[in-house]
Amino acid sequence: MKLSIFNGSPRGKASNSSVINKWLTEASKDSEHTIEIKEELIIKDVKKHLSYIEEIEASQKVIMTFPLYADGMPGVVMEFFELMYAHRDRLKNTQYLFVIHSGFPEAKHSYALRDYLKAFTHKMDGQLFNIIIYGGSEGTRLAPVRSQKKKRTAFNDIGLAFATNQPIAQKDRKRLSKPEELSVSTQIILKLLSKTPLLNMYWDRSMKDNNVFGQSFDQPYLNK
Amino acid sequence: MGILILDGTFGSKYSGLLNRITNQLDSQDIEVIKIEDSKVAYCTGCWSCWVKTPGKCVHQDHTQVILNKAINADKVLLFTENSVGYITSLSKKVLEKFIPLVHPYIELVDGECHHVKRYESYPEMGLIYIDDALNESDYQNTRKMIERAALNFKTTLSLSLHIKSDEEAFSHEIIHF
Predict the structure, then answer these.
(1) What's this model's pTM, rounded to 2 decimal places?
(2) Is residue A144 predicted with pLDDT exceeding 80?
(3) Cα-flanking dihedrals φ and ψ of residue B119, to 5°?
(4) Which of B42, B89, B106 sits opposite A82 (nearest CB)?
(5) What ipTM was estimated for this complex?
(6) Which domain holds residue B141?
(7) Number of domains composing chain B
(8) What is the pLDDT of residue A184?
(9) Which run of H or E residues covers position B7?
(10) R_g of chain B, CA atoms, integer Å
(11) Under an 8 A CB cutoff, do A70 and B92 touch?
């Protein structure tokens, strides 16, 4: 069985998508099952798109991981979807696992894209294994390994289930998708935090590091 | 400025439709940008526009012109064909380049996390979805995604139309957009 794994992040290998893909495949690579997993394919490498079609054609299963970008898939992923659709007769019956991740903590932001990916799989005459939504992903590639152990295990389990034709455990899906929406108590906490520098501390620090904190709210495109 | 039309269609097969629409719009101040003919790099997620050059995309291509015209327009109209059940990759590429127009800070809006405004006001958004098959499911999926994008860009999708390419008679809502 051959599994192709795609990274749709515009950041390429230096991305949270790449970390998630590693987590999705490491349990399968270590298992006793005969699963051929090739090196991660980077969708932002547009010149390789035609060769990627051949990869999908030769695979039974495909994982695609990408960030939510302006409430959809990244534009370069859409460009690849257009090419896939043009070659859909070659790609029938492929089984897909999609992972949408987002910096926003709540899964709700990705629901519309999830609905689209269901329709896309249908248009491709493919089989949808699952669509995983993972919120609050922005720090994934930088956060300490220990702090992410449970999420990593959930992705390990989901990836192995996909590779070995097993159903995924709902607890794994829920662990990654929660919160679906912000609870009232979380909203209260966020409202309180928004009155302090804490909520946006990361951004303030980044702007200060670049000596542009004073220009934080600049409006460079406004005609005076 | 009045209306900025971002033409995300491929080739010229819908230019007749676009001409019929622009001829009937009330606004005299209309500018059309054909994305396919513009040099616009994909957003790379570098966040320079948030933490290095606040509010400004680092790509020195037509992104600069599009963002200037968009934020100063009263309305921005996405003119796109149905592409695999969504907008074209050309339209999507430009839509996500609007990110510098908002601030990275997070705030709660109707109980959801969203980015904070950078500008006092934002153009209303419109969607013209060309689809000769009139696939309702494709249109509804697309409309939902564009509505969410409009919300994150601090505006609303005030016009959304699902039309065939040979449409000649346009509704009151588009003429007065």
Answers:
(1) 0.95
(2) no
(3) -110, 160
(4) B89
(5) 0.96
(6) 3-175
(7) 1
(8) 93
(9) strand B3-7
(10) 16
(11) yes
